[in-house]
Specification:
By secondary structure, the chain is mostly helical. It has 22 helices and 2 strands. 70% of the residues lie in helices and 1% in strands.
Length: 541
């Protein structure tokens, strides 16, 4: 596949990646938005997750704060992505600016975070989408079989695995079909899911608290629970209001929202397949556009829910033993559907919720697949893993390897962990990546002046390179997130006795990245190949 080592063709597996720039700016914007914070899915449980642990958190204000925190990260990422628009994202930048071993640590952190995300969304489909949708529809439409099936997906580990694996299998088939097909499915599923979410917004906007109360009371009492007033009273939260100034509520709530919100830069891993990827304005528009979309509609959706149901009811509905008895638990779409409780609207609002998982999985699988591909292309992994289908231009061997790992992680997650821990580990893995990228960005103007001077990243504000401004701010944001995990154990580790998880997990990422690099270096040296020469130039397109 490649000529003998020594010339340009011998450095890389071949002189062209075989990937095609087929993704549009719209594809990439949707890719970022559904990878980072798919509106309907984030609203469905993000609000309740935050308020269950931190009941006085101002979810709307916190979402707006998260938007501000994310801006320096997006500016940094867009400048680097337009300067070195290659498959691999941070792996390419860090290896060319700092060193290859550090790049392996950074990229492994991002890839691990993505695979954790893919596992989360597969499991989410079974437990937090398919299960609640079936049980809720069963209760609201009076069909007991739906309730029974939904309960099985939520409680039976084998059913949970089968539900999650069905999403992994579907995603694998779509990815193998190629980039165009992948984004076609992503966009169609996103449109269907978004329509259902926006119908929920309309119901909440025009519905009244009295309508909601009457419909909720009728359904909840029929399921053996109490009235809306009973639920609030039993939870002991009557009259509770958000307190933005309460830092023990606000700071950890920022972490909860950032768990979803901090990834609007993920399209950097599309740069090798994105049209006009060297256009700085396009990269910035894609990332900021996705952030604005997520923040606007998550904040709006939360405000509309509180308007109709009341803040204290939302807190109460997710409090244990409060008398909320509707099968499937309290989640956004069910509460929105209860405003009018019309079967056709209920099916549209609640049923469309099933379509959020697949588009959210696209970014979580696309990135680690491109990581395996890029590492193989640079000879760190077996060359077979960088093979590309002549028909679909998709890296089939890399796809199969990554989806096999995700399947194994799904099984492990179901039998060994809970959702909160799984999500927090994903955030910590992402923190490792962003911090290393930020250090590389600060070094870019001096260590690689040859690339920087003619690159889109060469932008100054008041005579100071913008990278010198946004990179330290990005690091501060990541330090804050790590501090939150250590300071507020309910976010991830549950007990102060488990604090050792945090440094141990981060150390594991560092060790694996270094082992892959130096192990490959030793093996390739025995084959007469010096892989360090690969990093003297940018990889071919």
């Amino acid at each position: 596949m490649a000529s003998a080592p020594g010339g340009r063709g011998g450095l890389f597996v071949r002189q062209s990646t075989g990937l095609v720039r087929e993704a549009s700016a719209l594809d990439a914007t949707i890719f970022n938005a559904v990878f980072s914070a798919p509106v309907g899915a984030t609203l469905a449980f993000g609000i309740f997750w935050a308020l269950s642990a931190f009941p006085k958190a101002d979810f709307v204000a916190v979402t707006l704060i998260c938007a501000v925190i994310n801006i320096p990260v997006l500016v940094m990422m867009s400048l680097l992505a337009s300067s070195m628009p290659r498959t691999g994202g941070d792996y390419v930048w860090v290896s060319r600016i700092i060193s290859p071993p550090v790049a392996l640590v950074s990229n492994f952190g991002a890839a691990l975070s993505a695979m954790i995300g893919a596992t989360f969304w597969a499991r989410y489909f079974a437990v937090l989408a398919l299960g609640p949708v079936l049980t809720s529809l069963g209760a609201m439409l009076g069909i007991q079989a739906l309730t029974d099936w939904g309960t099985a997906f939520q409680t039976d580990k084998v059913w949970t695995f089968l539900g999650g694996f069905s999403m992994i299998a579907l995603m694998t088939v779509i990815l193998v079909a190629g980039t165009k097909t992948t984004f076609r499915f992503q966009n169609i599923f996103w449109i269907i899911a978004s329509v259902g979410t926006f119908v929920a917004f309309v119901c909440l906007a025009f519905g009244s608290p009295d309508q909601f109360r009457q419909n909720f009371d009728a359904l909840n009492t029929a399921q053996g629970g109490g009235t809306m007033a009973d639920v609030i009273a039993k939870a002991g939260v009557a009259g509770i209001q958000p307190e933005l100034g309460n830092m023990d509520m606000t700071l950890p709530a920022i972490f909860v929202v950032m768990t979803f919100m901090m990834w609007n830069w993920w399209s950097v891993y599309l740069s090798g397949e994105l049209k006009s990827a060297m256009n700085r304005s396009r990269q910035m528009t894609i990332m900021v556009g996705a952030l604005v979309w997520d923040v606007l509609f998550i904040a709006l959706g939360a405000a509309l829910l509180f308007k109709v149901t009341g803040f204290d009811f939302v807190v109460a509905a997710n409090t244990a033993d409060s008398g909320y008895a509707i099968p499937g638990g309290a989640f956004y779409q069910v509460l929105a559907a209860l405003v009018y409780n019309v079967p056709a609207l209920t099916i549209l609002i609640v049923g469309s919720f099933l379509f959020w998982s697949l588009p959210a999985m696209v970014g979580n699988t696309f990135m680690p697949i491109r990581t395996v591909f890029a590492w193989s292309f640079d000879r760190l992994l077996p060359e077979r893993l960088s093979s590309v289908s002549d028909r679909t231009h998709s890296p089939v061997p890399a796809i199969l390897v990554v989806m096999g790992i995700v399947t194994a992680m799904l099984a492990w997650s179901i039998w060994s962990t809970d959702f909160n821990t799984w999500l927090a580990l994903g955030v910590l893995a992402g923190v490792v990546c962003v911090v290393i990228v930020a250090v590389a960005a600060m070094l870019f103007p001096t260590r690689r002046a040859d690339l920087y001077q003619a690159s889109p990243a060469n932008v100054k504000l008041g005579g100071i390179p913008v990278l010198y401004i946004v990179s330290p701010l990005a690091i501060l944001a990541m330090v804050f997130l790590t501090w939150c995990v250590v300071t507020y154990p309910p976010l991830a580790i549950g007990s102060p006795d488990n604090l050792w998880w945090v440094p141990s997990f981060i150390a594991m990422i560092v060790i694996v990245g270094l082992v892959v690099y130096f192990g490959a270096k030793v093996i390739r040296r025995g084959q007469g190949i010096d892989i360090d020469l690969v990093y003297k130039e940018l990889p071919p397109e």
